[in-house]
């Protein structure tokens, strides 16, 4: 059994509401933290080893300690609830079922960072969740956890919920900030990082929903205890949203010592692959991380057991490894076509590119068109090399990592499944018959040659 720090109370009746949350130990972490100074809180978070759960895994305490504190300038905390990475739905679960856990984490974090106005920026498609959050905020306010002079500390804090309008790029922190300021969500060049110059040019910390929720157990059990859970630099617990060809899709809390094999096959988690099918591949960290073929999923290239944590999932670099990313775990069985799957992702990234950088704006469209041709049995063998060349020219040459996110899945698919790309070229008729479903893609006809 895995340790549960975030979802331990998820099944308690009425836990979405203040009464049940408080009766079950809720807001005790705020009481504890408010006896400390903001600097002590930051130190406690550093001790916990918590890494950002939005995908990049940057150490949270370190980021907080980078927050600039110029005299007379407000500081902001922004909760990134944009969660648009295909395969990722863990933040939705937290906000929908445990809203007070997030609010409690936000209050402690706002106090530590000196943010009197804290924002939750939530993806537009989560249309029913802002009401849940606003209700929880109102309850917290009525019970004295928000508003003026919280717990007599002299600290004032309000939390506002801002709805996004459905753009994936607005999850990138600087695009999010632009959008929050009322502008088009175009990413800014970093540095300066938001911790120096963020919302309305003020120092700003942007953290993921799960990161901020994890602040609560850190103060309930203490940073050192939190750091003892897990292994190496993968401390604490991690939420994984599992989907695809598995028997039990859902959101699971793991301590990061379990093996990938256990996660896929044990009944406590994914429960194996339906209909006795074989596992073909898996994207372990959301659509933007490299796909891993079955032979590299359970064992690293060195033959070691692959574990569900930051270090182990990335072991081998991009040649034979992948990334923990946002924790969106997508499983593909033997019936899935890798070329079609890669095309689906390419369409997504092309659609979501903000268009500021040529390699991303043009490259994602090229990749999509070449992949259409390959998948539809109209490609040439040289198209596979062309595809490789395009992705290589995108990676590292753009303002934000959306370009990399579009390039990496294509690179990994070619690297591990080149034979499948070649099959489409060498079997054009079969490829076309198999793909009658492409008619569903509204943009398919315009790109076929
Ligand atoms: N959760 C989702 O839905 C989703 C969607 C798409 C992508 N992602 C993830 O986003 C990740 C990329 O995010 P990113 O571009 O923000 O990564 P990044 O490495 O640039 O930054 C990560 C965090 O650390 C901070 N940071 C890094 N260096 C810093 C410094 N020197 N000083 C102060 N702060 C610093 C950044 O401000 C940011 O908050 C990818 O790994 C991907 O997994 C997540
Ligand atoms: C294209 C793109 C989309 C992103 N979308 C999200 C998102 O939806 N949610 C999120 O928390 N981080 C997202 N990120 C990462 C954020 O920029 C940032 O790293 C994160 O919010 C920091 O929080 P953390 O340190 O708690 O992980 C995205 C990054 C990129 C490049
Ligand atoms: S990489 Fe793509 S999404 Fe990011 S700024 Fe450039 S064009 Fe926009």
TrEMBL record:
The keyword Transit peptide does not apply. Belongs to the complex I 51 kDa subunit family. PROSITE patterns: COMPLEX1_51K_1, COMPLEX1_51K_2. Keywords: 4Fe-4S, Flavoprotein, FMN, Iron, Iron-sulfur, Metal-binding, NAD, Quinone, Translocase. PANTHER family: NADH-QUINONE OXIDOREDUCTASE SUBUNIT F. It is an enzyme of class 7 (translocase). It comes from the Bacteria. Residues 339-384 form the NADH-ubiquinone oxidoreductase 51kDa subunit iron-sulphur binding domain. Its cofactor is [4Fe-4S] cluster; FMN. It catalyses: a quinone + NADH + 5 H(+)(in) = a quinol + NAD(+) + 4 H(+)(out). Its EC number is 7.1.1.-. Gene3D superfamilies: 3.10.20.600, 6.10.250.1450, NADH-ubiquinone oxidoreductase 51kDa subunit, NADH-ubiquinone oxidoreductase 51kDa subunit, iron-sulphur binding domain. It comes from Segetibacter aerophilus. NDH-1 shuttles electrons from NADH, via FMN and iron-sulfur (Fe-S) centers, to quinones in the respiratory chain. One of its GO terms (molecular function) is NAD binding. This is NADH-quinone oxidoreductase subunit F. InterPro entries: NADH-UbQ_OxRdtase_51kDa_CS, NADH-UbQ_OxRdtase_suF, Nuo51_FMN-bd, Nuo51_FMN-bd_sf, Nuop51_4Fe4S-bd, Nuop51_4Fe4S-bd_sf. The keyword 4Fe-4S applies.
């Amino acid at each position: 059994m895995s340790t549960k720090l975030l979802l331990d109370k998820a099944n308690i009746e009425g836990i979405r509401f203040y009464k049940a949350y408080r009766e079950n130990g809720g807001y005790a972490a705020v009481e504890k933290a408010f006896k400390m100074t903001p600097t002590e809180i930051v130190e406690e978070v550093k001790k916990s080893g918590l890494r950002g759960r939005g995908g990049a895994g940057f150490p949270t305490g370190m980021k907080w300690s980078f927050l600039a504190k110029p005299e007379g300038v407000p500081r902001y905390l922004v909760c990134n609830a944009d969660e648009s990475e295909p395969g990722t739905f863990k933040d939705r679960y937290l906000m929908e079922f445990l809203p007070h856990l997030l609010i409690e984490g936000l209050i402690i974090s706002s106090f530590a960072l000196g943010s009197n106005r804290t924002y939750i920026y939530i993806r537009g498609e989560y249309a029913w969740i802002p009401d849940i959050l606003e209700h929880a905020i109102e309850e917290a306010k009525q019970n004295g956890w928000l508003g003026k002079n919280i717990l007599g500390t002299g600290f004032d804090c309000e939390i506002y919920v801002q709805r996004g309008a459905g753009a994936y790029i607005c999850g990138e922190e600087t695009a999010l900030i632009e959008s929050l300021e009322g502008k088009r969500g175009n990413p800014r060049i970093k540095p300066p990082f938001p911790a120096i110059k963020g919302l309305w040019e003020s120092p700003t910390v942007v953290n993921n929903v799960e990161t901020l929720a994890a602040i609560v157990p850190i103060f309930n059990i203490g940073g050192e205890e939190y750091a003892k859970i897990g292994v190496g630099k993968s401390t604490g617990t991690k939420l994984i949203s599992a989907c695809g060809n598995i028997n039990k899709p859902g959101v699971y809390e793991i301590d990061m010592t379990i093996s990938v094999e256990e996660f896929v096959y044990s009944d406590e988690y994914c429960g194996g692959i339906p209909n006795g099918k074989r596992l073909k591949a898996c994207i372990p960290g959301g659509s933007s991380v490299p796909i891993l073929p079955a032979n590299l999923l359970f064992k690293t290239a060195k033959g070691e057991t692959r574990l569900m944590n930051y270090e182990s999932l990335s072991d081998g670099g991009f040649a034979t490894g992948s990334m923990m990313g946002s924790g969106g775990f997508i499983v593909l069985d033997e019936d899935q076509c890798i070329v079609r799957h890669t095309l689906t992702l390419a369409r997504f990234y092309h659609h979501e590119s903000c268009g500021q950088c040529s390699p991303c704006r043009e490259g994602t469209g090229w990749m999509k068109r070449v992949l259409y041709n390959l998948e539809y049995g109209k490609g040439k063998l040289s198209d596979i090399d062309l595809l490789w060349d395009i992705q290589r020219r995108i990676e590292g040459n753009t303002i934000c990592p959306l370009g990399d996110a579009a390039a990496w899945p294509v690179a990994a698919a070619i690297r591990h499944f080149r034979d499948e790309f070649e099959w489409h070229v060498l079997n054009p008729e079969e490829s076309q018959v198999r793909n009658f479903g492409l008619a569903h893609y509204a943009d398919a006809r315009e790109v076929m040659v």
